[in-house]
Amino acid sequence: MRHLFLMRHAKAKQGSGDMADHQRPLRKRGRREAAAMALPLQRWQALDGELHVSGATRTRETLDEIAGQLPELSLTERAFVDEALFTFDGQVLFAWLKALPDETKRVLVIGHNPALLELAHWLCAEAPASLPTGGALHLTLPVTTSWSAVGEHGAMLAASLAPEEASHALFQRQEPEPPDLIKAGLNQRILGLLGHQYLLVRALEPGVIAGADPEFLHQYRVNLRRSRAIGESALATAQKPVGKKKSAGKRALERKKMPGFKKRLKRLKRRAQATSDLRDLDVFLESLNKTPPPLSTRSRRALKHWLQARHHEQHEALCQQLGDADYTKEMLAWQAFLSSRGFRQSLRKLSSKRIEKVLAERIARHDRDLAELSSEAADEAFHDLRKSVKRIRYLAELEPKRHRAFLTGLKHRQTLLGDFQDRCTRQVWIGTFAAGSRNAPRRQEECEAWRSALEKEKLALRGEVMALAPLAY
User: Fold this and answer.
1) Is 115 in the same domain as 12?
2) Fewest CB within 10 A of the end CB: N or C in the chain?
3) CA 426, chain centre distance (Å)
4) What are phi and psi of 88, to 5 degrees?
5) 129 is in which domain, residue-wise?
6) Do 143 and 182 belong together in one domain?
7) Cβ within 8 Å of residue 341, ≥6 positions away
8) Cβ distance 387 to 402 under 8 Å?
């Protein structure tokens, strides 16, 4: 295959005074855009072949920012600066492309719109409608087709990426604005939270698919789980009688006012669960970069490659799910349900008294489970306790002003239980890695020693958890 990468320069300053268009430098935002694209371009192998850059200041500075993130590649020394690429005419760019030598199999062009987009549309019918500043396209062509013989729609779109899909920090500048819920009533607060989380989930999807910044996956997962937890809290609270006991008939009538709600919540749970292994791998890989594991250099390298391969598999599976028609259908059905008259009417039944009653029951159950823990308890008991803390937190967050101090007190408890779970997860991954290293007995010994060290850390965390006081409420 031949590979053509088209990248638009990052965001530049407006011209002023006697500054020529050719001399416009990047803005601070543009520098961040270009830097964010460095690792995705490396992953695409866009930097492995020839690099051609327009002579304009903004395109050369775009390359400089990419090169600064990957100093080992010597990109600025390898790049060709070509004034012919300082063009806004797609036909001129097309003529330049046709003149490339046939031995060139992989080429990256950093240039200007509309020329880049016009060329992309001529080469590929699936090319996107826009190419933002700092954005890049990956087009493929048959290796049997010489550059001089490239015809209309002769290329395929392999990938496209904008800086806001590569960096969560850049994405935050344009993410959906949260609703103002300070003075909102309880039912309006729930509607506002669920509606905003739906918009966030959908907006985060391109970044999750791009896979360049693990924060996209983390926030996508958090908002799915939070939506489900708020929904479960609303369902439990709406069906909870206060004061006088309700008959079975009345309780059944209340359940009918939210038809299909439980099924939709289960689907949200399933979608969130599909991200679990991938998120665990992100956290594990990040920890390896921060704290080198107690393994030999060779074993560390092998472990990292093994984890990256598992990460690639999990990411591919998740991308396939997100691109499936059933996923889109489920998400649109969830949005329609949130907007439905029946759901809005059922939320009017909620009250602070109902929330307090359900919250008190959950806290009492948590305290009983905490008291029953022992040093011999299975790891699962600690995981269940962590889940109960999350359910308590999400319910209390329905009325954040009332429960502000209580929510602050939950943070340490949740951190302890989260640290415990992280170590359990790492033990599983290390064990699986070691099991595949049967022909490397030394590596197996190293992994077993590491697992034992993690077991000691877990034992200390168990003691801290069991020493926690009952939740003060």
Assistant:
1) yes
2) N
3) 20
4) -115, 10
5) 2-166
6) no
7) none
8) no
| Residue 109, phi then psi, degrees to nearest 5 | -115, 125
Q: Residue 253: is its pLDDT beyond 50?
A: no
Q: Are the CB atoms for 117 and 130 separated by under 8 Å?
A: yes
Q: Quick one: DSSP state of residue 85?
A: G
Looking at the predicted structure, is the pLDDT value of residue 243 above 90?
no
Note the pLDDT tens digit of each residue in 305-354: 999 999 999 999 999 999 999 999 999 999 999 999 888 888 887 888 88
Strand (E) positions, 184-290? none
* Res. 252: pLDDT tops 70: no
Alpha-carbon distance of 379 to 384, in angstroms, equals 9
Say yes or no: 317 and 269 in one domain.
yes
Cβ–Cβ < 8 Å for 119, 129: no
On whether both 97 and 39 belong to a single domain, the answer is yes
Count of C-beta atoms within a 10 Å radius of residue 33: 27
Residue 408's alpha-carbon distances to 169, 186, 473, in angstroms, are 26, 21, 12
DSSP letters for 21-71? GGGPPBPHHHHHHHHHTHHHHHHTTTTSSEEEEESSHHHHHHHHHHHHH-G
pLDDT for 431-457, tens place per residue? 999 999 878 899 999 999 999 999 999
Last residue of one domain, picked from the residues 350, 372, 400: 350
Q: How far is CA 413 from the centre of its chain?
A: 25
Torsion of CA 126, 130, 134, 135, to 10 degrees: -20
Whether residue 257 is predicted with pLDDT greater than 80 in this model: the reply is no
Residues 309 and 372 in one domain: no
pLDDT digits (tens, 9 = 90+) for 189-212: 899 999 999 999 999 999 999 999
C-alpha to C-alpha distance for 124 and 118, rounded to whole angstroms: 10
Region for residue 61 given its phi and psi (left: phi exceeds 0; alpha: psi -120 to 50; beta: otherwise): alpha
CATH number at residue 157: 3.40.50.1240
Choose among 187, 240, 229, 224: nearest CA to 399: 187
- Say whether both 215 and 339 belong to one domain: yes
Amino acid at 353: K
**Together in a domain, 205 and 83:** no
CATH of the domain at 244: 1.40.20.10
Q: Which residues of 207-231 are buried (b: 16+ CB within 10 A; e: fewer)?
A: bbbbbbbbbbbbbbbbbbbbbbbbb
Q: How many domains does the chain have?
A: 3
Torsion 179-184-189-191 (CA) sign: negative
Same domain for 322 and 245? yes
Which of 143, 166, 189 is the last residue in one of the domains? 166
- Nearest-10 crossing angle of helices 404-435, 441-466: 160
